[in-house]
């Protein structure tokens, strides 16, 4: 028997629409607005310009809705129920881990640790295969969202890599409000009851969960849930669009392997510890592989042997309209060769309101373009020309890439004071 899409999809759509109308969904959007607003203030302080917060939030909303639809379908097809998932424990543990280090605010760490505690102590009583399945689905949705929009609106920064060199980079940070439709209860037998209608499910359903363990007569419903997903990393060795492709692939592989282990654990209970261990350890491997490749790899945004490399080009600026992009190397302004930020600034100051730029672009090679600047523009490279150059010798980092949590900072201050 095939999956009854015609009967199930309307129920998913109804619960999904209910999630969109929940006040908490709009609270999440407000929080995301505030996060993007803070990022744009940082961009303005460093770059002299800012992107549209409304555009960033709207883009995140569109992608979040699309990701939520994908996640909802996967959750229902897999038969993941919120029953015995320990959602409250999961959230509390995730927050506590965040206090140690912000990057631990992730269900792969909290879910894996919670599952291991349940296996060792018997408390709390959890449906571990379903819990690991939910973690896998959320990360699979995150992988798709990163691939689709993780590269947009990057923040150009100067960072110090593992070798002590200050290099150019992009801080990639995205947040998505994700409405979900998720199964809330189950019934013995393989029937779905939603809105009073009985839907006959195929014999292989559910792939995850222990539906028969619930009391006879329990009703299966699809209920609305609101989640929020976030993504953050540095692009040091490549352009943001190239970086998110690698991250998305690694995260998708992690998600599919975890999902496979969850399905295996649902049918072979003795293997449940494999899924519980892989959730935090596998995610840690993905994180460390990404950090190692970016902070120890060959940096992309460093001064070239000749010319001035651009770290970022502001959209709608004179340079962007002329065709210049991140990673391009400016060789001449008019007839004046430039090999440093100071020389570039000087050449722009004496070139008037219209001049020719000679630059090198990969791919494409040597190019020339006519640039016209606004006489009322703010002074400086960012305001007048719309570019930010890569760091030069003597430049300091603009951001600190360490991510200590509140507990780590308190402990460092406490033990540091005692040491003195």
Describe this entry's structure for a reader.
There is one protein chain. The chain is α+β, with helices and mostly antiparallel strands. It has two domains: 5-296, no CATH class; 308-389, PDZ domain (Pdz3 Domain). The chain has twelve helices and eleven strands. It has helices spanning 5-21, 23-47, 53-78, 87-100, 107-121, 128-149, 240-267, 272-296, 318-321, 341-349, 380-385, 406-419, and strands spanning 155-160, 166-183, 191-194, 197-200, 222-235, 308-313, 329-333, 336-337, 354-361, 365-372, 387-389. Strands 6, 7, 8, 9, 10 and 11 form a six-stranded antiparallel β-sheet that branches. Strands 1-2-5 form a three-stranded antiparallel β-sheet, sandwiched between helices. Helix 2 packs across helix 3 (53-78), helix 5 (107-121) packs antiparallel against helix 6 and helix 7 runs antiparallel to helix 8. It is elongated, with a radius of gyration of 26 Å. Mean pLDDT is 84; it is low at 186-197.
Number of helices: 12
According to DSSP, the number of beta strands is 11
Backbone shape = elongated
- Low-confidence runs: 186-197
Radius of gyration (Å):
26 Å
Q: What's the rounded overall pLDDT mean?
A: 84
Distance between the termini: 72 Å
Helix percent band: 40-55%
- What structural class do you assign from the helix and strand content? alpha+beta
Strand content: 15-25%
Run of helices and strands: HHHHHHEEEEEHHEHEEHEEHEH
Total number of distinct structural domains: 2
Largest sheet: 6 strands, antiparallel
């Amino acid at each position: 028997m095939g999956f009854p899409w015609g009967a199930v999809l309307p129920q998913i759509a109804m619960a999904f629409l209910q999630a969109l109308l929940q006040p908490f969904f709009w609270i999440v959007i407000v929080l995301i607005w505030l996060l993007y607003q803070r990022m744009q203030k940082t961009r303005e302080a460093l770059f002299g310009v800012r992107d549209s917060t409304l555009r960033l939030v709207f883009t995140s909303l569109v992608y979040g809705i699309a990701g939520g639809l994908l996640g909802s379908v996967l959750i229902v097809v897999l038969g993941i129920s919120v029953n015995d998932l320990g959602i409250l424990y999961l959230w509390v543990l995730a927050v506590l881990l965040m206090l140690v280090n912000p990057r631990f605010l992730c269900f792969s760490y909290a879910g894996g640790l919670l599952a291991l505690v349940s296996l060792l102590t018997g408390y709390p009583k959890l449906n571990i295969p379903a819990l690991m399945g939910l973690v896998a689905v959320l990360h699979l949705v995150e992988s798709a969202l990163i691939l689709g929009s993780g590269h947009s609106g990057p923040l150009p920064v100067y960072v110090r890599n593992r070798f002590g060199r200050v290099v150019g980079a992009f801080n990639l940070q995205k947040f998505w409000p994700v409405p979900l439709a998720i199964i809330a209860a189950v019934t013995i037998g393989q029937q779905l009851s939603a809105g009073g209608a009985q839907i006959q499910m195929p014999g292989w359903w559910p792939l995850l969960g222990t539906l028969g363990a619930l009391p006879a007569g329990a009703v299966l419903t699809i209920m609305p849930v609101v989640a929020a997903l976030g993504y953050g990393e540095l692009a040091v060795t490549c352009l943001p669009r190239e970086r998110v492709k690698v991250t998305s692939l690694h995260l998708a592989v992690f998600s599919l392997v975890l999902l496979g282990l969850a399905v295996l654990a649902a049918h072979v209970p003795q293997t449940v510890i494999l899924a519980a261990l892989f959730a935090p350890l596998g995610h840690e491997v993905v994180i460390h592989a990404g950090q190692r490749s970016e902070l120890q790899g060959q940096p992309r945004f460093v001064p070239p042997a000749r010319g001035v490399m651009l770290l970022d080009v502001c959209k709608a600026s004179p340079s962007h309209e002329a065709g210049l992009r991140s990673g391009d190397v400016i060789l001449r302004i008019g007839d004046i060769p430039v090999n440093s930020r100071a020389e570039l600034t000087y050449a722009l100051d004496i070139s008037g309101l219209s001049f020719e730029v000679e630059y090198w672009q990969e791919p494409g090679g040597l190019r020339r373009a006519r640039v016209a600047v606004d006489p009322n523009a703010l002074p400086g490279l960012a305001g007048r020309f719309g570019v930010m150059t890569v760091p030069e010798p003597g430049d300091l980092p603009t951001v600190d890439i360490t991510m200590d949590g509140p507990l780590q900072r308190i402990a460092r201050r406490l033990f540091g004071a005692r040491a003195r």
